[in-house]
Amino acid sequence: MSELTVQEAPSTWQKVRQSNIWHCFVNDRLAMVATLIFAVIVGAALLAPLLSPTNPYDLSTIDIMDSEIAPAWSEEGDERFLLGTDSQGRDMLSTILYGARISIAIGFFAVILQALLGIVIGLTAGYVGGRVDNFLMRMADIQLSFSTMMVAIVVLALFQASFGSELYSKLAMWMLILVIGIAEWPQYARTIRASVLAEKKKEYVEAAKVMGFGPGRIMFRHILPNCLSPILVISTVQIANAIISEAALSFLGLGMPVSEPSLGSLISSGFEYIFSGSWWITVIPGVVLVTLVLVINLLGDWLRDVLNPKLYKG
Fold first, then answer.
1. Which one in 34, 53, 145, 207 has a CA-CA gap of 20 to 30 Å to 276?
2. What is the DSSP track for 2-31?
């Protein structure tokens, strides 16, 4: 009597290694380098309380006499401060780690808000159609006619003028997330709507209707999983855009307060000292910001090509 051999189901890690995305990733050096740099920056930002030499939020650790000290590798540098200090005497390495954490958090949560709004609106417009579709898409067109920066500047300036700088400083992070998130939802809505218009004509949607499933279940349980590829690509690009928007608003004085610096506010606070010789206060956070945005965009381009076989040349 022959023995039946039972094959074990592959683990999640085995499924990942057998996937096409993993094969494309390990054969693309640029994607691997970008992922490594991104992981290092994000990991260092998340572990800022453990990696930072000092806590830039703790005033007891800051000495104004240590202000504008050059990086340790320069002749005027101090070995206590690897990347130098800013105009307030804070260690630049510590402020950059904490600032990167704030910038990444704002970008990440703003994109989550964008995606939630855009997906719901795009699914509804594409699936329901008719007047609902026309109304929602006209709303998206109106939203797109205003730039994100213009909307953010007006809203944040009005909030700061109406409720005062003290309250704004406490709510600055959440205000930035709300403004950047709400201003960018049409990007998701238009993309999702186009995918839904193609998906809702397929047989599996008709079968779901015959089985008596409601519109909500059909949209979110059946159509949405088939529209995830463009969502992933958009999200990577939008995270980079959100980080840049936050940095620009902070540079204009409408972002994070000086007491809780982001990368943008660090660049802004050191800009007036760049011509007096203290270039590191602005340049080093600027390099970190540019590197972070660059690797995110590279990962977004790679993901777009991999998810579209016609574009991938790996």
1. 53
2. PPPPPPPPPPHHHHHHHSHHHHHHHT-HHH
